[in-house]
Design brief:
This is Fructose-bisphosphate aldolase. Pfam families: F_bP_aldolase (PF01116). By secondary structure, this protein is α/β, with parallel strands linked by helices. The chain has a single domain, classed as Rossmann fold (3-Layer(aba) Sandwich). It has five helices and three strands; from the N terminus they run αβαβααβα. Strands 1-2-3 form a three-stranded parallel sheet. Helix 2 links the parallel strand 1 and strand 2. It is globular.
Amino acid sequence: MAIVNAKEMLLKATKEKYSVGAFNITNIIQMEAVVEAAVGKKAPLIIQTSVAPSKFLKPNVLAAVYRTLAESAPIPICLHLDHCTDVDFCRTCADA
């Protein structure tokens, strides 16, 4: 399934009265586990990562891995950079 926009995902959840889990992920093993659990529940999912893993692995590499896993899942998934105060780094990640 395609990666979805957080605003659209949360507006739909609000309208239909359900919650969306958001999980901070620091590696591919955690990502696989969280996606597997959400798929099992047929639940939408927000995958968050903080600045440190994004800088360590390079945004384009991390985004490619997360995007590949998210797009192969049969549920809506949103990717989110959590707690970033560096506007330039936010842009770099958004472009990745």
